[in-house]
Amino acid sequence: MSVEHDSDDPKTPLLPVNDPIEPLPSTPFSLKFLITLKNFYVLSGPLLCAIIFLFVRFDGPVTSRNMLAVLAWVFAWWLTEAVPMPITSIAPLFLFPLFGIASADSVAHSYMDDVITLVLGSFILVLAVERYNIHRRLALNITLRFCGDPINPPLLLLGICATTFFVSMWMHNVACAVMMMPVATGILQRLPIGPNQSKDVGNFCRAVILGVTYAAPIGGMSTLTGTGVNLILVAMWKSSFRDAKPIGFNTWFFFGFPLALLIFFALWAILCLLYLSRGSSQALSAYLDKTHLKRELDMLGKEPWPLGGMLIALWMTRSITEDIPGWGALFHGLVGDGTVSVMAATLLFIIPNKKQKGEKLMDWNECKKLPWNIILLLGAGFAIADGVQSSGLADVLSKTLDFLEQAPYLAIAPAICLVSAIITEFITSNDATATLLLPLLIQMAKTMHVHPLLLMIPGAVGSQFAFMLPTGTPSNIVGFTTGHIDIPDMIKTGLPLKIAGTAILSFLMPTLGTFVFGTNEGV
């Protein structure tokens, strides 16, 4: 008789002691099990690495060739997903020492940084938000206020999308899309479906799902914690230019929030033009009842903790301006955004939740859902940025890009943005795209004699403009799987949104970006 084991009990042995050992079923060996496309993808990484290692020669140090070989291996596995992305992300931990690029200790340090602690603490807070339905409470409040009387569909759409936008500012945009989509579909469940659904109601459903799908990544652009791409950008800037002023939470917010806000209103305008007609109000008025929404809000009870607001305030005031240093100056500049994030996360395990005696706001079992794939990918980005610099590959790349020296910035920046978006749309994730492109863009900037952020930011933000296909980002998949939208809907909305986003970014970077990041000064 087998014994059941509780995996949550720390005293449970890793291997069962009393369970009988049953032999595994065996199958005869055959070459057809080895000759598969998946195995070809697995071999492609080491094969490309070997080709570069044996046949490529640079004028620079041998380590520059070795670094290029390692990059070919890692990028091949990332692009093909031959092995899980988190496993590919830890490959530098053994590849860098074996190829003489960096010591094991120095590579391991790349995987724990202030930016990574910022992510770690933030994701614990996200899990707490999910546990106490704070996102749902916020959605119902805003929907009640924006519903209008009589119902105003453009205003209601704005309220639902604005909620998603705001929530995504403070948590990862994929987590936001996963949590907000049930809220949106819950509102749409009050509307008729199937043959009884009018064209106006169907279009409104499409607009709501598309709005939530795209508002999540757009809102994430506002803050460092909203998307992994922003964190990768900040990390590579910090590791590549150690003497330059780091990009803090509020520094990015002063640029990212106006950028995201303009793109958000472009999204709302596009959805209103494409999907909302003058007859929408009359078609919806019979199904959306304010009384029902208020009753649902009352059932959630009171908000149990104000820690999220405290965290945002601490992030925004740690370092305000050069003239107004913020509370971080009290600690002689030793604290970072990660300090605040981890401190707030720690308090969740200390403050009682006032529901059951001895129970705290958070429980460690909830933290088993932490997205280690994103954390490891960030560490890989740090390691690659350090390796490109220390191996001498950065200097080699810089020499090969001399032809860009005379290219006008106003032509290069939109092109970088579009190329980055296309790579994310058709090839790999936005995090991987940013990790692939940013080291190259740093060298392009040096060749063109422009501030690196003038190219790095369009490349990073552009990778988040994957609005046209379901496979572009996880947020797109979340929206597509609801069944309310199809690929033509995404292309019809995503294409003008991609163009609008590129135009807005290309305008703001040399204007607002110059003021916020000081790109008119040297690095």
Keywords summarizing the entry:
mainly alpha, 523 residues
Radius of gyration: 25 Å
The proportion of residues forming helix, as a percent range, comes to 55-70%
Distance between the termini: 69 Å
Major pleated sheet = none
Strand content: under 5%
Instruction: Give the tally of β-strands.
Output: 0
Order of helices and strands: HHHHHHHHHHHHHHHHHHHHHHHH
Which of globular, elongated, flat, extended, rod-shaped describes the shape? globular
Low-pLDDT residue spans? 1-7
Average per-residue pLDDT, rounded, comes to 79
- With helices defined by DSSP (H or I, 4 residues minimum), what is the helix count? 24
Structural class: mainly alpha
Structural account:
This protein is mainly alpha-helical and 523 residues long. Helices cover 63% and strands 0% of the residues. The protein has 24 helices and no strands. α18 (393-400) crosses α20 (430-448) and α19 (409-426) runs antiparallel to α23. 44% of the residues are buried. Mean pLDDT is 79; it is low at 1-7.
